[in-house]
Write a structure and sequence with these properties.
single chain, alpha+beta, five-stranded parallel beta sheet, 16 helices
Length: 638
């Protein structure tokens, strides 16, 4: 069969990625979108777009009937599932085929076998691949265990349990996340290995019996069981004799055991000696597929489409060359328990020189609460690993990301870390190394605050209708320096006839958007941008966002002491306390679901719940008071 038009049953960067190849092949493209995604770049880039009414995944991207009907209404003759949502749902694949459409993926029966982590383990064990066994009835001797969602991936529905008393609550949370993300609440437990290497093999198979093991990737640097940095080839495999051949043999055995077709990934957990255990098989394209494309020269999406049309693969895949590294740029705060962030991206610019960017957002995009907080994948290729890491770190450092806090600084520090350079990249990397600090040291941040103040003054001069040509804060008789609060900094300076007066800093140039300061003869550049309430400063060594307080705050906007405010929009899913209850510091008061994950809201101090104005099912916005906890009064004499 020949494909003419393809609908991507997904959103964001993966939809844009598939559209890019589809256009190159001369195919027309169809997007689907929820109400929350109405202005998303993937919608405007498609030739045709079909609305899925609602915002929650359960009402939109997880509705197989709506997706199939959208394809029929738009005249598409094929559906590409992307990854996540229904990409590994056998019933969805069956519905696509039953409607007379081409399914760009493996057969539904194969998805059912390998898409279930439980069934795929049993199958692979039968053909001799080592696996981590399930734990059916967890006891103290089994701890720690890892709860995993049987369907889907990406860290959703995964919980580590170290205390048997936590098991039931964590099972409930895992089931809830899995149902929200994949439409299937099935979970299971397996032994949890504190450290290891996450190694995966990309496979590609046609309908005529040819199976490729295209190359391996290492995805060991993770947070919350979600991958953060991926690379090809794997440093562990590179230094372990014979490991690549064994991995490829196991991956091909998995594909051949079920008659696999299309693109897929076989994932393993390995130790330092090179021993490995099968984890799961993803019957779809992976988020990290670009590193394989850059090291092989293949277009995996084009191959998926070709295989779906019935074409044959060559007998052997092309050889790999060089090294590629991908990082996932998330809207999150690593220093605050990786809390997802929402808001408007006032500026989203990543240098293009030698860099591939697969992004679901652009300047002006709104990062909402309904979906994964990943903004983009940023990928670099070079002849060797050290050069790829250096190129990628440099591009991230020079990026301008305004409006939403991201993990950019952490990614740069990972890429520059000595342990990363040495290839010591097991799954405990981010536990062992605290890399949540800013790239800017305190002295540079203080200079950035000064630059923000000077740029703000220049912007005020440019907008002034009267005496705008006078220097900022001009006085014939000098009385005191100007004082501005920029973030946590109180900036003091004066501009007189002799220029800027402040400790050891000379002003070279100041405009509303650019400030150049000389410190001990070294001229440093600060690019400044402003939005209401914020000032963003970019430097060659890092960036910083300063909150600029309102000079005339509204007293009615103040919140009671002890208030716990919603840090992101979301839904209250469960409440574990009530007004009047005594609570201990760290005790969970309620759970807030946002970005397909549940977040615990805990008492900051020991005391009494004075107010708890929300209940299960309530939708809350950023800044909403979730609870007020009054701390116990100290006892006299203590």
């Amino acid at each position: 069969m020949t494909i003419h038009s393809v609908l991507v049953a997904n959103r964001g960067e993966i939809a844009r990625r598939v559209f890019r190849t589809a256009r190159a092949l001369g195919l027309s493209t169809v997007a689907v979108y929820s109400d929350a995604d109405a202005d998303s770049p993937h919608v405007t880039e498609a030739d045709t777009a079909v609305r899925l009414p609602g915002a929650a995944p359960a009402d939109t991207y997880l509705r197989a009937d709506l997706l199939v009907q959208a394809a029929l209404d738009a005249g598409a003759d094929a559906i590409h599932p992307g990854y996540g949502f229904l990409s590994e749902n056998a019933d969805f694949a069956r519905a696509v085929l039953a409607a007379g459409l081409t399914w760009i993926g493996p057969a539904p029966e194969v998805i059912a076998q390998m898409g279930s982590k439980i069934e795929s383990k049993r199958l692979l064990a039968a053909v001799g691949v080592p696996v981590l066994s399930e734990v059916d009835n967890v006891t103290e001797q089994d701890l720690p265990v890892l709860i995993k969602a049987s369907a889907g991936g990406g860290g959703r529905g995964m919980r580590v349990v170290r205390d048997l008393a936590d098991l039931d609550a964590e099972l409930q949370a895992a089931r809830s996340e899995a149902l929200s993300a994949f439409g299937d609440a099935t979970v299971f437990c397996e032994p949890y290995l504190e450290t290891g290497h996450h190694i995966e093999v990309q496979i590609m198979a046609d309908q005529h019996g040819t199976v490729w093991a295209v190359g391996e990737r290492e995805c060991s640097i993770q947070r919350r069981h979600q991958k953060v940095v991926e690379e090809a080839p794997s440093p562990l495999v590179e230094r372990t004799d014979g490991m690549r051949d064994k991995l490829f043999a196991a991956a091909k055995a998995a594909a051949e055991a079920v008659g696999y077709t299309g693109a897929g990934t076989v994932e393993f957990l390995a130790d330092e000696s090179g021993r490995f255990y099968f984890l799961e098989m993803n019957t779809r394209l992976q988020v990290e597929h670009p590193v394989t494309e850059l090291t092989t020269g293949l277009d995996l999406v084009a191959l998926q489409i070709s295989v779906a049309e019935g074409a044959s693969l060559p007998a052997e895949p092309p050889p790999s060359h060089g090294h590629a590294i991908e990082v996932r740029l998330y809207a999150e705060d690593p220093a605050n328990d990786w809390r997802p962030q929402t808001g408007t991206l006032h500026r989203f610019e990543i240098p293009a020189d030698g860099i591939r960017v697969d992004s679901g957002v652009e300047t002006g995009s709104v990062v909402g609460v309904h979906y994964d907080p990943m903004l983009a994948k940023v990928i670099a290729w070079a002849p060797d690993r050290a050069t790829a890491a250096r190129i990628l770190a440099g591009a991230l450092t020079r990026s301008r990301l305004h409006g939403v806090k991201t993990n950019r600084d952490l990614l740069v520090q990972v890429l520059r870390h000595e342990a990363f350079r040495d290839g010591a990249t097991d799954t405990a990397f981010l536990t062992r190394h605290d890399l949540t600090a800013s790239l800017l040291d305190k002295d540079t941040e203080a200079l950035a605050a000064l630059a923000a103040a000077l740029a703000d003054a220049e912007a005020n001069r440019a907008a002034a209708r009267v005496l705008g040509r006078l220097p900022s804060g001009w006085r014939n008789v000098v009385s005191q320096p100007q004082v501005k609060v920029i973030g946590d900094h109180e900036v003091r300076y004066r501009i007189g006839r002799d220029g800027l007066t402040t400790d050891g800093v000379d002003l070279v140039e100041a405009t509303p958007n650019l400030v150049r300061l000389a410190v001990n003869g070294v001229v440093r550049r600060f690019d400044v941008a402003r939005t209401p309430g914020w000032s963003f400063v970019d430097t060659p060594t890092g960036s910083v966002a300063f909150e600029v307080p309102d000079r005339f705050p509204d007293p009615a906007a103040r919140t009671p002491a002890g208030s716990l405010l919603a840090q992101m929009p979301g839904t209250v899913v469960r409440v574990a306390a009530a007004a009047g209850d005594r609570v201990a510091a760290g005790q969970v008061l309620l759970w807030l679901e946002a970005m397909k994950m549940e977040h615990r809201v805990v008492a900051p101090v020991t005391g009494v719940v004075a107010e708890l104005p929300v209940g299960a099912g309530d939708q809350v916005e950023v800044g909403r008071v979730l609870a007020v906890v009054r701390a116990d009064e100290p006892v006299e004499g203590t």
